[in-house]
Amino acid sequence: MIGTGPVAAVIRKDLTAIRRSKAVVIPMVAIPLLLLVALPIGIGLAARAQRHTDVSGFLGRLPGSVAEPIVSLPPDEQLVVLVSGYLLAPLFLIVPLMVAAVLAADAFAGEKERRTIETLLHLPIPDRQLFYAKVLGAFLPALVVSWLGFALFAVVTNAVAWPVMHRIFVPTRLWGVVILWVAPAVAALGMGVMVRVSARAKTAQEANQLGGAVILPLLFLAVGQSTGLLLVTMPVAFGIGAAVWAIAGILIVRGAERFTRDRILSG
Amino acid sequence: MGAVIETVDLSRAFGPQQALDGLAIDVQEGEIVALLGPNGAGKTTTVRLLNGVLDPDRGRATVLGLDPARDGTELRRRTGVLTEAAGLDDRLTARENLVLIAGIRGLSGRDASRRAGELLERLGMAGEADRSVQGFSTGQRKRVSLALALLHDPEVLFLDEPTSGLDPTASRQVIELIAALARERRRTVVVCTHFLDAADRLCQRMAVLDRGRLHAFGTTEELAATLWSGLSVELDLGGPADPTTLALVAGSRGVLDFERVPTGVLVRVEGRGAVPSLVGALVGREVAVYGVVPRAASLEDVYFALQERRLGDEGTGRSPGPPRSPGDRVAADGGHA
Known about the structure:
A: mainly alpha; elongated; B: alpha/beta; Alpha-Beta Plaits; 2 domains; six-stranded mixed beta sheet
């Protein structure tokens, strides 16, 4: 069982240090702003300008059940909804995955690099609790940054599309599932990989390089599949999220079981 | 009370390298013991094993009645460690470093702030408490790190190079603080250091390690007795002894060996009884003797003599066996500890 005291204290220390680090804060703010605000504004404006474009040919190539929600819309709204409501969906999974992976890479390797790891290891917190504290210390900021980003995305997307749509069209219920259930699972998966790599690497850069080999394919997979995710039914979206959570859970629990102070110092 | 720290055959290897091999020492309550030895001797590995952050391959240790390998978390509540790298987070202020670590140690926010303030004041860092550690000198970092080790008033302190990077005044302050903790509060302290003068002033016993093996363990006097027989006295002759005087010294009864020094001659005699006849022989030949001072071996004398003996034992030293007297020191390997 995880005692809340020392775990919470380690997380508090990590979050305080992250807030003070421009090298971490700037990309954590800039990347979501770029992907979830600037990019949707640009693409949304372009789609709005081209709203009379006939997309029925494209939609006709999609399976009927998938294309149906868009085909049923008035012609002017189809391109805007297709672009802003579906094609930008990969961004939902890229942001949590990236932020979690960057912070998790720093979890142990960053401490080694700053030569603070030994101070941490000499504290009275059991190995497993220390591991979980480091995992949560990366996961919570990733979640907060992602959800704030999604909120901004919804605001700017609706604002940009307002002249065409005259109503709020994102988020939908399915988006809710993706944002609240699948995106955190993807963040946990990235973190499960990176925190284990971080425990073995000597510097955060080395952890990023080693972890990148695993994270990049995950990233491509996320990009490739996420549009489709918004076209599936709710139960399928829940199922996909559950599968990702299960894999992330296994990775994290097995990482915790294998984590010892001795391995950190002698590895 | 028995030993606070006791090790039996404590050993640890990293791959093919034997970092510690069969360490057997004991440290009593309120005692300050120095771990001395060159880089790679096994000092840091010893501290890590004693605090349960590494597990031994062989042997065992007991600290405060606990097995560090099994009861590490419980043990670390009662120990404090000053690491060689100081281990402070550069992104935080001195006070934040202390308060956040105090939180992990279970101190409440108010207690943590109060304790951090007290320690920073005591270590002369109150004025820097709210500055980012990033701009700190090595000495300032060391003092904050020492405060970190003392936050929870530990029963056993492991200090890795506590005075390195400190100016003489700060170094003296730190030595006095550590000595007071042991003397007044019966805290047990293990000090790893390269600074032999600091160890000499601070420690009751020393363990000399080299390449993971314990070469000597005891007080300076005990170790000196294993190196040199008899008693050393310095004869103040007002200047270096001339050849005639040295011949008189050599011919005097009970003299084991001698060495010319700037103020006269350093003589090792069989015992106190040999001193009057030595002085009598010199005075009888009208050699002015201004003073006779017994000269106890310093930790530095003993340490370098041990190093030289080790080199001699291995057949790699230039002069086998111990030096002739405590003052007759040979720089062993260029590194002090």
